[in-house]
Write a structure and sequence with these properties.
810 residues; mainly beta; six-stranded mixed β-sheet; 55% strand; elongated
Length: 810
């Protein structure tokens, strides 16, 4: 037997009395393991049980096998359970009778697995059990986790609201929304009550009065500092990739840090193994490809790439986008200040690409590797001759974000899971301007390097209670560079912050009593400031009855990075915001507290949802709010306080879905050291109303919708100048007036069909601003030094903008 153990790497288990006195000629070494065991069985009258080609149990054939018996009961009412499935070794499972009784042959079995519908599975080791006494086994009822119970679709198919208050989007199940022909995460996010964009940009999303940089954007665990292509008109997140998009306006998990406003978490990791697929598409702005290939049963690779088509063709969509982005920037100012022999050559392009590799290791471990790269590039050469003087500018603006994440996940057992991920995100914004008139070169650069490690443990204690714990380390470094010639000026500032965080979170679920309660806390330690910050979070949901749900959400959060504007014409006035870090003095740590109360009623395909909220964010700076009035050059700190209500009414009728939403916000700044300590927030949109009608049947989908908002605040001027030799604008109280109301009607339509070879085709069409309304989205004043007068500068939203798309998937 020793030779067999050495040759086949197996181990024999037996008692001395079972083989005592037996002799046999060893089998030939050329035989297989199975053939050798059959030979020994014939020669020795012994039984050999092969377990996974690792262990071989030996016993006498005449030996009476051990019998294990038991009774299985419910732990809830102590009643016996019939038809429980008991599996052991590789043998045919047995089941319990009406009394919960079972018996089985212990031969070779070391453990049994007990399963029954409605109860939590249980594993029991029986290797050393006394076979004389029957077991008494109690099973815990398995109650469906409340978090997985979702309401009907909200706004469109594929969008649901979860019990923890978050919104979840499943792009592969996504229907259609007005103006959208793809499940774009950032555009879809703006359809939710309480989410808006003051300047119609995905790079300026305002959630309950917050600025864009106060939102946390995650792509597969990587924090993204750039969210828009075309400087905000297109999302950098490929809409054809994500499997799950989670949006939190309040009550986010304690595992989310570095945000005082909302959280958008995008995951492109599939929940189950998917078949090989390939897709490609094109619209009037960009083209993309996607491929997913299973390398084996346990590994797969996924790649995607998307690139603008503006290098080859200038579509009507591109022209509308270009006009919207570059109005009132230094690019258009150059042409406005020249009136003879003006020439301009503009080149713009962007791309993004992703790579995912998934590897399962054994039955318990999984590795996931993600990479993402994003880049926008603008080159503008302008020249003009005025009064025999030649002037030209060569401008280059680049914006890019790279990221990588490595995730290891281990399922220790049914009740305990560990996830560890290491990530890095690098953001770079670079502007290079060369002018011939004064022979000057100006370089501006803003660079962010963010890396860290996250550890998360999940523990299921009972069917109703579970808790999570973890640790996070986050290091963020920000560099700002200015390099100017003639006159020479050079400044480079680099700041680094390291933050350690401990997280503990507990969750209680009971679908019978319709109670969901989740509470957690995050303790941050900022190394540089020697400062601790406590961030508790809470989510509570109670089903008053089967139709009416009460929800309470609350959170305290903090943020150590923000975007500021030094000068409105930085980076050509196109992407003028730059990232900076808190210094705990002139740039404080931003901190927020928020509380909301929600009532949701659904019955007979009707849905009514009403949420009241209060939110306060402290530690903001005037530089982070984008002032273009008397506060543009004022450096002070303060806070904003907002309260309001969000209401949604929705009705589904067969294939037709319609909804109407209304949002009210009252949002004020508080700058105690300023002469006007309280005035309306730049991002206050007091009234917002949206309506949509959506029809989906089979392969055809169509949507029409409208959005109306009251005008954002603006600061008026007396239209007078003080001291004509040094003109100065005279402003009224900040934000004491408002722009005209905003009204936009949007339309979209898609049609999908398949061929006999399972190839899918999808054709889409959308029109933004169907009525071609001239909506004003910004207004400010400046001095025309040549005319010695005050100019009113207006910025407008997109005019009527069509788009077409075509996709193929197989």
């Amino acid at each position: 037997m020793f030779d067999i153990e050495q040759q086949h790497l197996v181990s024999f288990n037996y008692t001395e009395e079972s083989i005592e006195g037996l002799e046999a000629i060893p089998p030939k070494k050329t035989l297989s393991l199975g053939q050798k065991l059959a030979y020994l069985t014939e020669k020795t009258n012994l039984s050999f049980e092969n377990i996974d080609n690792k262990f071989i149990n030996i016993y006498k054939r005449t030996q009476e096998p051990s019998i294990i018996c038991g009774y299985i009961f419910s732990s809830k009412d102590k009643k016996p359970i019939e038809d429980v499935n008991i599996a052991f070794s590789n043998k045919v499972p047995v089941t319990t009778d009406a009394n919960g009784y079972f018996k089985l042959n212990k031969e070779g079995a070391t453990a049994i697995s007990i399963t029954h519908v409605g109860f939590i599975p249980k594993d029991i080791s029986i290797a050393n059990l006394d076979s004389k006494n029957c077991l008494q086994i109690f099973l815990e009822p398995q109650i469906t986790v409340l978090q997985e119970i979702k309401t009907n679709s909200i706004l469109a198919s594929g969008i649901t609201k979860k019990t923890d208050g978050s919104f979840e989007i499943k792009p592969k199940k996504f229907g259609i929304l007005p103006g959208l022909i793809e499940p774009d995460a950032l555009q879809t996010m703006q359809q939710l009550p309480g989410v808006n964009s003051i300047d119609e940009s995905v790079s300026s999303i305002n959630v309950r009065g917050g600025t864009h940089d106060q939102n946390l954007f995650l792509w597969n665990g990587i924090r993204m500092f750039q969210t828009g292509h075309f400087f905000g008109l297109i999302s950098v997140f490929n809409p054809n990739l994500p499997h799950t998009i989670s949006i939190y306006k309040n009550g986010s998990s304690a595992f989310y840090g570095e945000s005082v406003s909302s959280v958008l978490d995008i995951s492109s990791t599939p929940e189950t193994t998917e078949k090989n697929s390939f897709g490609a598409g094109i619209n009037m702005i960009n083209a993309d490809i996607y491929a997913k290939y299973n390398l084996s049963k346990k590994s797969s690779i996924e790649i995607s790439a998307r690139k603008s088509i503006t290098d080859f063709v200038e579509t009507p969509t591109y022209k509308e986008y270009f006009e919207k982005i570059f109005q009132n920037t230094t690019i258009t100012d150059f042409s406005n200040s020249q009136n003879t022999n003006y020439q301009s050559d503009k080149k713009f392009n962007f791309y993004d690409a992703t790579l995912k590799y998934i590897q399962k290791i054994g039955q318990k471990d999984q590795l996931v590797l993600d990479f993402i790269t994003i880049k926008d590039n603008l080159e503008v050469f302008q020249s003009a001759t005025t009064n025999n003087t030649f002037r030209s500018e060569n401008n280059v603006l680049q914006q890019q974000n790279y990221g990588g994440n490595l995730l290891w996940k281990r399922n220790w057992n049914r009740y305990n899971t560990t996830k560890i991920n290491v990530y890095n995100s690098t953001y770079d914004l670079l502007a290079n301007q060369k002018t011939t008139f004064d022979n000057q070169t100006a370089i501006q650069e803003n660079k962010v390097n963010n890396n860290g490690i996250n550890l998360e443990n999940n523990h299921i204690i009972t069917s109703r209670f579970s808790f999570n714990d973890g640790y996070q380390f986050n290091e963020i470094g920000v560099t700002n560079l200015e390099d100017i010639t003639n006159p020479n000026f050079y400044r480079k500032v680099k700041e680094v912050l390291r933050i350690h965080s401990l997280i503990l979170e507990g969750k209680y679920n009971d679908t019978i009593s319709r109670i969901y309660f989740k509470a957690g806390t995050r303790i941050n330690y900022i190394d540089k400031f020697k400062k601790y910050i406590l961030e508790p979070r809470v989510q509570f949901s109670y089903g008053i009855n089967k139709n009416l749900i009460l929800e309470i959400l609350g959170e305290l959060k903090s943020q150590n990075s923000q975007q500021i504007i030094d000068l409105q014409k930085d980076y050509f006035g196109i992407e003028k915001r730059r990232w900076v870090l808190s210094n705990n003095t002139t740039i404080p740590i931003q901190r927020s507290r928020q509380l909301s109360l929600n009532l949701s009623y659904k019955k007979n395909d009707w849905l009514f949802d009403a949420e009241n909220f209060y939110k306060k964010v402290t530690g903001i700076t005037t530089s982070s709010q984008g002032f273009q009035n008397q506060l543009e050059f004022v450096k002070t700190t303060g806070d904003y306080e907002i309260w309001g209500a969000e209401i949604l009414a929705q009705k589904k009728m067969n294939h037709f879905l319609t909804w109407l939403s209304y949002t009210y916000n009252h949002n004020n700044y508080h700058f105690s050291s300023y002469e006007y300590p309280v005035f309306p927030n730049n991002f206050e949109v007091m009234h917002t109303a949206s309506w949509a009608g959506i029809y989906e049947k089979n392969r055809f989908k169509i949507a029409l919708g409208t959005k109306w908002t009251s005008g954002k605040p603006k600061t008026s001027t007396e239209n007078t100048l003080i001291d004509n030799s040094n003109p100065v604008l005279v402003y009224n109280k900040p934000n004491s007036d408002n722009l005209h109301t905003f009204l936009q009607v949007n339309f979209s339509m898609t049609y999908k069909w398949e061929t006999a070879k399972d190839i899918q085709y999808k054709l889409g069409m959308s029109i933004l601003n169907v009525l071609n309304k001239k909506n004003e989205i910004n207004e400010y004043y400046r001095i025309n030094s040549l005319a010695n007068s005050v100019e009113e500068v207006n910025t407008f939203a997109l005019r009527r903008t069509p788009n077409l798309s075509f996709r193929v998937l197989f």
